[in-house]
Known about the structure:
The structure is a single chain. The protein has one domain: Rossmann fold. Helix content is 29%, strand content 21%. The chain has helices at 14-26, 41-45, 70-78, 105-114, 157-169; strands at 4-8, 31-35, 49-55, 87-93, 120-122, 125-126, 138-139, 142-143, 146-148. The strands form two sheets. Strands 1, 2, 3, 4, 5 and 9 form a six-stranded parallel β-sheet that branches.
Amino acid sequence: MKKIGLFYGPLGGxxxxxxxxxxxxxxxxxxxxxxxxxxKAADVEKYxxxxxxxxxxxxxxxDADKSANDWDLFxxxxxxxxxxxxxxxxxxxxxxxxxxxxxxxxxxxVAEKILPKxxxxxxxxxxxxxxxxxxxxxxxxxxxxxxVNEDFEPELTDERVNNWVEKIKTQFK
Length: 173
């Protein structure tokens, strides 16, 4: 398996903790962990295997001194990438209790931007076991990536991450 670029944000919260769990499950030597905030399209282009980690609403939402969150800055760069020779997996953090009408919507938003650019997105997850009302992350009846709810289901995170990683690591180049 070629090296994986794992681009994640925001920094310093649940998304970063889960990103580190994904890295540990894949093996530290197999993954470069890269904050999305300061990344450019050229950084993504270096990898054939990519993981995007994001939250739909995160810590930065309540930080008044920040004008844009990490993915607001990174998404225009993500859109510049040609994904025709890339394999992409995604995980998203969300709160299916408080935000049950927008559960992990960010996954769907990113997929909407990269699928037309040739992205081969792997790691889709069954909706079974998730209790929410609506999500833009569902494509063809499955979540387009791994949903994680650290707010209300942190006890399920390790198992969900490990099962997902077992599934995706055989599909990377």
